[in-house]
Amino acid sequence: MKFDRYNSSLLPQNLNPKNPPRPLRGRDQLNLPPSNSKMREEKKQQLKMAEEQMQLLRSKATELLLREEWKDCVHAYSQYISLCQDQISSTDTLLEADQLHKIRKSICLALSNRAEARSRLRDFSKALEDCDQALQIDSNHFKTLFCKGKILLNLNRYSIAMECFRVALLDPQANGSSQSVNGYLEKCKKLDLLSKTGAFDLSDWIVNGFRGKSPELAEYTGAVQIRKSEISGRGLFTTKNMDAGTLVLVTKAIATERSILPGKDLSEDAQLVMWKNFIDKVADLSTKCNKTGNLISKLSTGEDEDGLEVPDICLFRPETEEKSHPVEIEMGKMLAILDVNSLAEDAVSTKVLGKNNDYYGVGLWFLASFINHSCCPNARRLHVGDYLIVHACRDIKAGEEITFAYFDPLSPLDKRKEMSMTWGIQCKCKRCNFEEELWSKKEAREIEIGLERGMDVGGIVYRLEEEMRRWMVRGRERAYLRASFWSAYSEAYRSDRTMKRWGRRIPAMDAVVDSIVDVVGSHERLLKIFTEGMKKNGGLIGMERALKLCRGVYGKIVKKQAMRTLLDFHD
Ligand SMILES: C[S@@+](CC[C@H](N)C(=O)[O-])C[C@H]1O[C@@H](n2cnc3c(N)ncnc32)[C@H](O)[C@@H]1O
User: Fold this and answer.
1) Atom of ligand 1 nearest to the CA of 300
2) Which of 131, 245, 268, 315 is paired with 392 by a 20 to 30 Å CA distance?
């Protein structure tokens, strides 16, 4: 075909007279794409700019890390990491192998530092994700392994934590910090053993008068499982016989909030503020960690408990991996869960353990949340640091449900009913049922009224014992009533005048204490009267029984010296 030079559409655009040509330069004159070398030049330029930007961001992130401004630090490292990743993907072909290696190393360190910052914010799930990503880049990265080990230790996942510290120690970088890493490794080994054996020993701390840092504990689950309960919903059951003092479980708080409350007038407001902070903490944790969120969502709201699923106890073990999806717990449900399951750290045992009277603490502990109330409890709890220790307060048979007293079991039926209302429960235990029935007797009500009106306690005890003989109330049932009227018994045993007057006509103190311990379990108020009695009798008679009582109240404290220190508390 003849070349039609006037057919403008066939002309290159920049030679088209309809489009005035712009000044042409170099390769542009031929309308060719930029040469490889030009592209390289431009990319290099971009690379340089990005590098400068990254440098700035990295310095900023490091500074925030050193200043311990964790939130901003996480943010800065996130920006830095995504810039690095962008750079790798956009300049992939242009990066020399060593440049690529350098950037990947920087990402690894940034992930490690972000993990550190996240762990300080207690965002352990995300911190662990960062560690794992960093270790994908460099599986022996010392800083990351050290950080991951510490996070896992915090989460009581001792065996994987140990593995991290062991690998970290192989790194030549560990030299400078090997003492510290070794320290963590030893701690892990000790706690791992404790978590498997439950061989805790609080003796030294107790002998030292609970001064100094509370002893290091590990999570431990004894011979127990979660099952359907005849009391309500789910409960915790033993799978083996346990004698008084046996450790049932040790569990670390999901969250706690503590304070020394100011003067009385302010204390209600202060408690409200604490409660709000506590709710915020738990809500925050449940969104940060899928496992925590999922486990919280399995707790009772106090409604329709019998329809609730029975979770496997393994789910609550720290080493159980979280494979769960995020759950969103709506605020109303969260409030109900916390209302039903949170425990106040104001148990008498906490006060004995060296805390002030105006000290107030609240917390949530998973496994303890499955323990139902009974007025004849077989277990007690003790708070040490963030840990809750549950032990048998009397002998328990395999298959029996573990129960706490949510309120004072050494109080009369009416008082217990009043207290159960504040807990939103209606106790139907054997003791409550028996006493309910007995209270139809006019004599029983008269005894109670007598106690309320401050009648002579010796006379009250005498009358109650006489009536029980007449009603043919024996064994456990007799112990129920003695526990309900314990305030009269203890006052009588304590008063020399009363004992002089009624001594022979009322039963001996140790027989009454023994009968109550058998059904209601050991209790510090029983221990107190017992040790006072021992002192009056000149010392060591009854020491073995006192120690047994003491084990029921505080668990199996290993050294006798520590037991004696505890007994002294009750003088
Ligand atoms: C800490 S939870 C105990 C575990 C609960 N049963 C579950 O299934 O998750 C406390 C709740 O259990 C129920 N509960 C505990 N003890 C009870 C009792 N003695 N009588 C009736 N309900 C009880 C009440 O609904 C209470 O709010």
Assistant:
1) 9
2) 315
